[in-house]
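so my prof wants the structure for this chain in the tokens format not the other one, which i didnt know existed until like an hour ago. anyway here's the sequence
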Amino acid sequence: MSEQQKPAANQQQQNQGGGNKKGNDLKLPTRADDFSGWYNELVQRAKLADTSDVKGCMVIRPNGYAIWEHMQKALDGMFKDTGHQNAYFPLLIPEEYLEREKDHVAGFKPQLAVVTHAGGAPLAEGHRYVIRPTSETIINRSFSKWVQSYRDLPLLINQWANVMRWEMRTRMFLRTTEFLWQEGHTCHETQADAQEETIKMLEVYKTFAEEFMAMPVMTGQKTESEKFPGADSTYSIEAMMQDKKALQAGTSHNLGQNFAKMFETQYQSREGKKEFVWQTSWGVSTRLIGALIMTHSDDNGLVVPPKLAPTHCVIVIIGKGEERTKVKEKAHALAADLKKAGLSVIVDDDESKGPGFKYAEYELRGVCLRMELGPKDLEQNQCVLVRRDSRQKEFVKLESAIAKATEMLDGMQKDLFSKAKAFREANTMAVNSFEELKANADKGFLLAHWDGTAETEARIKQETQLTTRNRPFDLKQEPGVCVMTGKPSSGRIVFSKAY
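here's what i got, hopefully its the right format
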């Protein structure tokens, strides 16, 4: 996956985010006043991740890793439904493998971590290794042995792994030196088959982003300047964060025959001829957790769509003494019923903290639904349910609590998507001059005509900090003139500031 845009925050900023704050003694910075500070504080105080003594790396805490596990489970099922199988390839890649594809090595060389010693001795030139920044090269080495005939095609492989790209500027989840991801790699008989696969997997990513993450995305083709090193073409899903910046959330690449020729990945065709395979690769990473945070969370903390939430409901027990015992029994009975309905539940019976503190703590951590249950509630055969995103209370009869909880979670999932989509649409606009482009540089997705040259693209980036995101498939195209040069343009492309 190509993630070339650099965020403004540096490592020092990351390490300062929330390190000395505990509990709810201080509120988060507001998104309006300090979006970057809000994000850094939230990641640490919601116990999603922590800093590490390894430069540029993070520790993913259980609350954050649980979200990744849910993402993995959903995506893995979608990959298998489309015929892909999981495999695993070495972390270390012979350095000379990367040298075989000039565009590929040029794209990744500044980010490589190189192993020069092993077993206490230096490795000879030509026998050094790099820690994988991506696996096209070493996977092709295996593919060249596995593919012999057209009968071996298509070969559809996915790998769940970690990768390392040495980064100078980092921000937890969005850009770290080491991160977790999946990378799909496939081989096909024809160029058309490879292109079909490339778009199919892009649509898988779109479906996941919108139906599970509740995050609307634009699908489209990247420019030549922004495509993956060594690919014929790159396609992406692009999302708008709450600060109106873009985030590239996933990419799918048509590799053509570039890597196949480097590693002689050939097959005997139906006509008995030796042919090079046509290939694709595609990937998403733990960057999706950062995307989820910045799409939905608020000034009170983390908001997680129910389909990916580590905890759907917390039952907070209220009351003291003997009364509390009855409440506790009912709370655990309700928890058992909620679990039978497929929800993850925790019962909070901690008497050392007051209810107000608990409410704030569970909001910060992103629990989707809070159930309040006390002696007076039992007397009235009811409980209080509070949805995390709206924070509105509802009094619900105990016999209806399970059905109502499920209904509220379904509503939350739908409402989060609708809210994010409405926000994106309100902050997407067409611009028709360079002055208009520059004046609206901080206002979201700008649809502008561009003459298609890398030179103009670079000039716009230098003067405005705007980058091309993609040319959306569903954007109706019509000829025009480039906003910077006045030269002919075949259609509009999305410009935005980005992570």
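also thought this was worth mentioning. The first helix runs from residue 11 to 16.
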